[in-house]
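FAQ
Q: What does a multi-component entry look like?
A: The components come first, one per line:
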Amino acid sequence: MPENILELRDVKTHFPIQTGFIIKRSAGAVKAVDGVTLSVKQGEVLGLVGESGCGKSTLARTILQLVPTTGGEVILEGRSLTKAKKGEMLKCRLDLQMIFQDPYASLNPRMTVFATLAEPLLVHGICRRDEVQLQVDDLMRKVGLAPRFAKKYPHEFSGGQRQRIAIARALALRPKIVVADEPVSALDVSIQAQILNLLAQLCRDMNLALIFIAHDLSVVRHISDRVAVMYLGKIVELGPALDVIDRPRHPYTRALVSAIPVPDPAAEKTRKRIVLAGDPPSPINPPSGCAFHPRCPYAIDRCREIVPPLVPAGDGREAACIRLAEIPQGA
Amino acid sequence: MPLLTVTDLRTHFHTRNGIYRAVDGVSFSVERGETLGIVGESGSGKSVTCYSIMGLIPQPPGRIESGSAMFDGVDLLRCTPKVARSIRGKRVSMIFQDPMTSLNPYLRVSEQLIEPLLIHDKLGKKEALARALEMMEAVGINDAARRIHFYPHEFSGGMRQRVMIAMALVTRPELLIADEPTTALDVTVQAQILELIKKLQSELGMAVIFVTHDLGVVAGLCDRVQVMYGGRIMETADAMALFGTPLHPYTRALQRSIPGLQPKGKELFTIPGLPPDVSKPIPGCAFAARCSFTAEECIAARPELVEVAPGHSHACLRSQKGEINVASL
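Then the predicted structure of the entire assembly, as tokens:
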């Protein structure tokens, strides 16, 4: 049983809102991430899904300590990142890398592929200057780019190729865990499939843990071992990918799954769709009790009062709903 | 007689770097009350086709080289600007992908909603406002009487798209062109908007051209689907036939690269190579460079769109001759 490589304990990331022009006053906070407890094992792919504004990207940035945490702890292999000093943090970053959504914005347009990939190697002193060329060639081959493109600039590549460069950059330091924030959302279907295959293969070959953030459930289902569903800064359901997506328990996950269009007209005609009313509420002023109750078809009075904890719901799955036992399964 | 018949449409962009053949000989028709889906990857020419019909191509650099778009006896590509104006926004309207940038941020929603009514239906302001309010309610905006006076930034993304739809439908058009209207939205909101379009379509009896890259959306919404690639139509059929028995290798390849349809954990099918460079003339089939069945004849001459079964046409030479069976892949 591989051990947990990353642990989040009740992590909170709040952004204060200030009002007033000269005299600043605090006027509450955006609770982007509000008490997330998670763990990731070595070589595991954890999918993170939710609608926009649910805090999945903030959670990613919190894991990498790109935004300050308000509470809780992020632990990487026993080292607490939230308490780490600057020097320690730099060392931890070796093991922790990120791939961003937009391959057009995340690469420096003035740096060649070679410069982009060589920089982390030199900064962290991974290899000697004369070995860099070899390392870069190796990295490029690993992500399916010909090394002869090393002298080119990002604008000379297509979206899919750029995402390959971004992946190579993340892998340059041989990290143990990679956080990928919507790495395929900006790509066309045929290119998306190439990048998904590449990520899956790299995870297997390098025994890499991957936190894969996406809003497309079919993509997440395909690549992930486990899936966490977020709603308004909290995890509402967590479990093995096939269980969560094929047999969702939490009412929100059900609605989310039923909203995905299926590319099969026959199935589309027969299946029932749960259309949620309204938009996700604002994380500045979240509803009382269960944050999902205003849109939930099963909500009762008690849901307005109790904040449901994430509790085991059988077959290795956890869900945060007080009516879990009462809601008919497989509906 | 079809409501809209597009014949041999070619829209090219003349730039310093060459001529981009964004749409290169596209013919199709839309019947009254029908939903036609146009699918394709970015750069396949699906949006430019719609923009050409609506007369929204910036000229220059764009130029409509040939073709016609007959809408109820009027050629939209060649009629006088005055005639075009009387049809556009009244009998044919369009909704766009990004509701944030397609509404005017300086004007209240009410002013934007009544504008087509003031111009086309010559209504008074009061009457127009009443009609607009009705439409706002029809698209499911609560508290419409108050919110009609809001500015666009006061609405969420999904609500803004509803406002866009209300604006497009307020003149009761016969044809609605929807260019990726749900791409920028969350799946739960996308489900709401798709239901809404379906409902309003059956109420108003209008035809819809729905452009998207998402095969799933097409499957649930459209009667007929046409697949575009490199500015050309590769295959067109009714939704059932297209998904059940695709006959063009590209359609099948697209289908096979969707993760949702493949067994989990298995490697996804990928189309090798990159989308075609439309700035150079492609003498043969646009997909030939990436197709696994390419023969010499595919590169030599451009395959025609041939009807092989009632309502099912495709442009693959080898599949037409029965040399390959795409559906069995």
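Q: Is there any commentary attached?
A: Sometimes. For this entry: Residues 226 and 241 of chain A are 5 Å apart (CA to CA).
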